[in-house]
Amino acid sequence: MNPSPSTTANAEAEPFPAGPAARRPTRQVRISWEGKSVAVGGDAPVMVQSMTNTDTADAIATAIQVKELALAGSEVVRITVNTAEAAREVPAIREQLDRMGVDVPLVGDFHYNGHKLLTQYPECAQALSKYRINPGNMGAGKKRDDNFAQMIEVACRHEKPVRIGVNWGSLDQDLLARMMDENGRRARPWDAQSVMRDALVVSAIDNARRAEELGLLGDRIILSCKVSNAQDLIAVYRDISRRCDYPLHLGLTEAGMGSKGIVASTAAMGILLQEGIGDTIRVSLTPEPNGDRAREVVVAQEILQSLGLRAFAPVVVACPGCGRTSSTVFQELAADIQSYLRAQMPVWRLKYPGAENLHVAVMGCVVNGPGESKFADIGISLPGTGEQPVAPVFIDGQRSVTLKGEHIAREFQALVESYVENRYSKR
User: Fold this and answer.
1) What is the pTM of this model?
2) Is residue 225 a known part of a binding site?
3) Which residues does the UniProt record annotate as the domain IspG C-terminal (predicted)?
């Protein structure tokens, strides 16, 4: 029987490609502070950012949380500037961060009264590295236009970049009503959700162009169109990416708590990033009560690292477990090793450049254990149920040593430390 054409190898065929599409070409925006800067768009890697949830008027608490987010890997941190008290404390927050050696730019998040705060508190306007403006929360009609112009004028005076961030929870109602009316005159009207998505894109681009008319340089503008539904986010960003070349900030607004927020953000942003869309991201997780705000930073990093776009910390491959792995040893070891490696990265990033690309395998039985361990830089195959109480360790694909006894976890961690030092140490 002849094989099916669909399963026959074609000697002339190219291999099916793996990996993300080429990044969408954009302008590049630089966010600067204290003689330093980070780039967004252009040839810069996709950047991770986060936002504090402290009262900005409490300068110490806010500076501490900014430090925690920066240490977790947030490359930009946004703070709320909503009151005169908050605006007055922004320079003190910047000074405190500088004293602590925290090299991260601060972005001011403004709504409703941003035009007043930036004008009345020039020290705040100067201490911030970037402003986030929501045109939908700046009044209506001429008042909105004047308030927007006032904020852009401050940005021009202080030479600050601006993110013009529209949100479907606060979309310009005049624009939306006009576009709904225009839609009603179409021969085949769109559904209301499609009109709203189009209005988001139009609002973002029109406000960016007006900012340029008011004097803000085109390479100081970043755009975002925030929605809370994954499919809407994908549709909106596919659309806006075809209609402008401004860098784009990705993120679901109000993504939610726990696994729901993580899954929704990953599903939406993963597709866009795979298509080359997106220059900076935030995973807007609702923290558990007294939860760790930095979790959203780790999730954002893991999205980018899973897609092969960035490397932030060594990857630990571990099997999910089954009836062969009734022991919890491999689960505990995998968790301990993963926590240990991430905790070491602030030091290793400087001392052992490249260590973030390390692949470690912690496997629980002989089915896939040896094979996965061989594919990793360093891996261990722990004994499963009924297997001999020995754990072979593979280094660079070769069986190196066999660990036994009660101290397997400690001995394997020591082997990982030695491997990192030998492979990544600056010579």
Assistant:
1) 0.93
2) no
3) 316-417
